[in-house]
Amino acid sequence: MNFNTPFLRLWGMPLVLALATLVGLLAALIGDGLWDALSWLLLSSLVLVVVWYIAKANRKA
Amino acid sequence: MATLKSAKRWFWWHKWTSLICTLFLLLLCLTGLPLVFHEEIDDFSKSKRGETVPPGSRENASLDVIIANGKKAQPDKVTRYVFWDDEDPSIVYLSLSDSITAPPDNYKILQMNAYTGELEEQLKVDEGFMHIMLQLHTDLFLGIGGKLFLGLMGILFIIAIISGIVLYGPIMKKYDFGMIRNEKSRRLKWLDMHNLLGIVALFWTFVVGFTGVINTLSDVVLGLWQQGQLAEMTAPYRNEKPLNPDSLYSLDLATKTAVKAAPQMGLRIIAMPGTMFTSKHHYAVFMKGNTPLTSRLLVPALIDAKTGQLTDMRKMPWYVNALFLSEPLHFGDYGGLPLKIIWALLDLITIVILITGLYLWISRLKASRAQLARLDNRLPLTLKEEVNHEF
């Protein structure tokens, strides 16, 4: 994601991830089926982000 | 953004709130890990399940028969609660105690077949690995004091999260998101890892921490409800004579009356007269809605246990509903097995945050000023200042 202002460069990703968590946590509460799937998608993205950046650092090293 | 002075103050808060709660949080994360999967583990270790018959294809047995069969199996005990299995409509559970007023931890659970009314098995409730995990997680085997203490640790954890977010700004100002410097020193690598995992998981850790704190207040919430709404709903009965326990109105008919009053809702739990969740004169039939959200927000229907009349049915006050909602958001049990697996992974991430935080503190204690000075020029300004002033 491309965040050009200094504020978004610093806080863009944290805000996006916090929003994804919020929507993900609520989605599974609101409904079943597709809502559950949306929740899995959004919340698992947190884990994927962690895995992605650790893998990136290890590639460089 | 943050001045040096305020960054130092936030750092102080972050350090001390974390240090005090870290070991307890580690315990909570480790014991919470199997607890996330308690339903699956319980199912696995259960000797047999109730018959799985599709709902509606068979008549439910009368609750009066089920209660009587429970009494037959445990003649010197009384049924205090009747509750239904969330997943399996063929199962009804009875909670029996030595007396109606026995302490909350005095109970046995009988699993009954909802169609035949027969006893299936007595569940093992206060033994085994999962019981130990649950007690360590909720109150450290110390009762309400331990529970509230863990709530206090949760509040410290929340302060640590908030101060951590504030510190993330000055520390990461000059760097890209997700930076892990793993070629320079182990300390820097773990610092970067701590910052990355902390900021990624922050909202989840905040929600699970906050709802955990609310859960520790369950006894307080119950007390407020008893003094408030329940007392109000049962006020006309305050001076009535106690009921003769042998001449109560049929529980089965009372329950049907409650279901008729809210046909779109399902049965969750019934509290017998004289228990904590009702008056001495009422069956309290707690009904649940049919969405994942409303199935958590129970609604009590109070049925006069002598006449079988529905005397009141109300939505719970906001503080009880807050407790009800904080349960799924803490347990992660409301979105199937995939959500539980994600819950477990985020729990593991939290464990890494705690351990790296502890490591950073220990390594700072050990490191000499000289070692830190060598790193000096690689650190951002605020952290450099902090290093020079703190150590």
Highlighted features:
heterodimer; A: 61 residues; mainly alpha; 2 helices; flat; B: 391 residues; alpha+beta; eight-stranded antiparallel β-sheet; 12% strand
Report on this model:
The complex is a heterodimer of chains A (61) and B (391). In chain A, 85% of the residues lie in helices and 0% in strands. With 61 residues, chain A is mostly helical. Chain A is flat and about 40 Å long. In chain B, helix 1 runs antiparallel to helix 4, helix 5 crosses helix 6 (186-216) and helix 6 packs across helix 10 (336-366). Chain B has 391 residues and is α+β, with helices and mostly antiparallel strands. Chain B has an eight-stranded antiparallel beta sheet, with helices on one face. At the A-B interface, helix 1 and helix 2 of A face helix 5, helix 6, helix 9 and helix 10 of B.
User: Total number of helical segments of chain A?
Assistant: 2
Instruction: Name the biggest interface.
Output: A-B, 35 and 38 residues
Q: How would you classify the helix and strand content of chain B by structural class?
A: alpha+beta
| Major beta-sheet overview of chain A | none
Uncertain residue segments of chain A: none
Please indicate the percent range of residues of chain A in DSSP E strands (runs of 2 or more): under 5%
Q: What distance separates the N and C termini of chain B?
A: 24 Å
Mean pLDDT rating of chain B? 89
**Portion in helices of chain A:** over 70%
- Radius of gyration of chain B in whole Å, from Cα? 26 Å
Beta-strand level of the residues of chain B, as a percent range? Answer: 5-15%
* Shape category of chain A: flat
- The number of E-state strands of chain A comes to 0
**Mean pLDDT across every amino acid position of chain A:** 91
**Number of H- or I-type helical stretches of chain B:** 12
